[in-house]
Specification:
Strand order of the largest sheet: 7-8-9-10-11-1-2-3-4-5-6-12
Number of domains: 1
Shape: globular
Length: 350
């Protein structure tokens, strides 16, 4: 019995000693609002990084006259960018889109975009027929083929001027809009959740909700700056939309340099009795300010939209292969005498 009491006392003493000596994590010295604002500003200053934007959710169509009831979607955009030298910018984008309509089989669209050597390259790597609405014989010749468009030198020169001294080229109205946007803070109910790692980056983790009043005030001030009159009906519609929006936000800010490296949203919005949308999304940065070394795709062809249109028209199915049930008795859907025969001069007399 004495041994049991001794062992119990030893364990309790060890637990208390560990608890007392453990480092209690405290919130950052800055307020949540200050840190989040700085995090957003620093995020905008990152000139090179890898990024990923992911969205998935469901759109429900509650209109009885609609063509479908719901659409499930899952889309991601990922890649790298390097804007250290705007005269030789590098950017890549991988697009992956999956759709399912009313529980049907998944339909997908995959593509890539690359900007390098002052050329914009793009390719469609895979695409579904969307239940026959997009004949594969029309798109097959263009799949996995890289195309490119030269970026005009004057566009690059203008971009560099705005980037180096943008305010000098802004009108007074544009300067006011920029200042308004810089001051807006759309987060409320902010709570510090502790420290978390995003990849290899230690970060401060916060949760929050959307400040609907801040959004409304921003839009009304923006209208005032641009000289627009906002009807009461538009304000009412905005209020109804914001009231129907349920949005929670998560933010992760790097502990090393106070840069916002990830933001996530969980949202739902509805417009009775028309539609409702539920979705989750996130935007993540990694490899901040690391070197980016992209390569131009091989065997890319100059993009000629007119040639592509001619090629697609040659591959289009014959006219008699279309189902004309939609037009009913109309032999020619563009026959003016049929389409407009129900209108007479009496229809437009007062």
């Amino acid at each position: 019995m004495k041994n049991l009491k001794f062992i119990t006392a030893l364990i309790l003493s060890s637990v208390l000693l560990v608890a007392c000596s453990a480092e209690v994590e405290s919130e950052p010295d800055q307020t949540a609002e200050e840190l989040i604002k700085e995090g957003i500003e620093n995020m905008a200053k990152v000139k090179s990084a890898s990024y990923e934007l992911a969205l998935d959710g469901t759109f429900e169509n509650e209109d009885p006259l609609g063509d479908y009831e719901n659409v499930d979607f899952d889309v991601s955009f990922s890649g790298q960018y390097d804007f250290n030298d705007l005269s030789d910018s590098q950017f890549s984008l991988l697009i992956e889109l999956i759709l399912s309509i009313d529980g049907s089989s998944d339909q997908n669209l995959d593509g890539e975009v690359t900007v390098i050597d002052n050329n914009l390259y793009f390719a469609v790597t895979d695409i579904s027929d969307f239940d026959g609405d997009l004949p594969q014989e029309m798109v097959a010749p263009f799949l996995s083929q890289w195309w490119f468009i030269p970026i005009p030198e004057e566009s690059l020169a203008t971009l560099e001027l705005y980037y180096e001294d943008g305010d000098a080229y802004l009108t007074e109205e544009e300067k006011q809009i920029k200042a308004l946007f810089k001051d807006i803070f759309i987060f409320k109910d902010i709570e510090y959740q502790g420290s978390e790692k995003i990849g290899e980056i230690n970060s401060y983790y916060y949760t929050s909700t959307l400040d609907e009043d801040a959004i409304k005030n921003y839009l009304l001030e923006l209208a005032e700056i641009t000289g627009e009159t906002v009807p009461d009906s538009d304000i009412e519609n905005l209020d109804n939309f914001l009231n129907s929006l349920d949005l929670s936000l998560d933010l992760w800010i790097s502990q090393d340099d106070n840069t916002l490296i990830k933001i996530a949203a969980d949202a739902s919005v509805s417009e009775d009795p028309v539609m409702s949308v539920d979705f989750k999304g996130s935007y993540t940065l990694s490899d901040l300010n690391d070197a980016v070394n992209l390569e131009a795709p091989e065997n890319a062809s100059m993009f000629d939209p007119f040639a592509l249109m001619m090629g697609a028209s040659a591959l289009a199915p014959a006219a008699d292969s279309y189902d004309d049930s939609y037009y009913g008795e109309l032999e020619d859907p563009f026959a003016n005498e049929i389409i407009f025969e129900e209108f007479s001069d009496d229809d437009f007399s007062y």
